[in-house]
Design brief:
single chain, 382 residues, Dihydrodipicolinate Reductase, domain 2, five-stranded parallel sheet, 9 helices, 14 strands, 32% helix, globular
Length: 382
Amino acid sequence: MIESSKMPPLKIGFIGGSINSAVGYAHFSAIRSDGLYDLVAGCFSRNAETNQKSAQIYGVETDRTYPDWQSLLAQEQTKLDAILVLTPTPNHDEIVISALEQGYRVICEKALTDSVPKAQKIADIVRQTSGFLAVTYNYSGYPIVREMREVIREGKLGKVQQIQIEMPQEGFLRTNKSGQPMVPQEWRLKDGEIPTLHLDLGVHVHQLIHYLTRLKPEEVVANVSNLGSFENIIDDLNAIVKYEDELTANIWYSKSALGHRNGLKIRVYGDQASMEWLQADPEHLQISYADGRREIHDRAIESHACNSIRYSRFKPGHPAGYVEAFANLYADIHHDILSYQETGASCMTNEVFGVDLSLEGLQLLDAMTQSAKHGRWVKVEK
């Protein structure tokens, strides 16, 4: 557990993230977990009733609850340590750019934005302002995912040759008790330059492969489908991605795979050993060696990276999950913001990622889109 008493809580404001949003309460729970943030201001929703109700539940005073994000940024400029952007992805770029230009430290829910040109513009603003921008990819906050990275770094797998990663979900085929489709948020049913499926799930897959290997994607071939209940929206992808250093990644993610609430699975194959992790069993990592041995890594073994006291909100044997992974990431972001405030240098730790990785991810997703459209291999823009 983070020793929060030794680390000053940062005052943070939300833009978006109401009680009716898909991710708002998860972020709220995560920032409170270790006492590292105080939510003191927000514009949670354009709907006045939802905005006020969210403020009440989150404990934000009425005079610091704003009807629009522009008013929040104008009034809170000297009062906040950071702004957290939780609006729908297509709205991110305008808010992020405005906040950076006004001197805010910015945390943004993935995907940073919905197109390569918008990401390039944000990257330009970050450089021009020497600003702080962190994007939340919470799956690499799982202790076992961090253990996987250390296993690769220590060379236990030998040369990493293949990664198979899948993230199947069922939301676009699920029905309610009456047999009617369960309709997601309206903006998730519209595809732009890059399909919304890629922005929801593909950015996570790209970040996880980068997190584990630090290798860059070079070329991709992809196939996409519409298999769910909603027409004219891509809801399933299969892709093969060639990475640097002769690494191949096989990727499947979907919102039309019945039986999977969130079936995130990562398998990494080297020439000496392989390893496998499932989010549904978040506390265990299986490693299989060439001589037939198998090991199970968990938080109970002192020599393992996942055994760090910061990950032990309770003792091994009592699984930590999605919100705790978010909290681990927010602790890392807290560290980086304090460092930025002290030095003025946006020096990210190995756990926090900003605009550069977001831009690379969108370039990969754009290449996937072009590959599926034209039916051929496409090189990833550098």
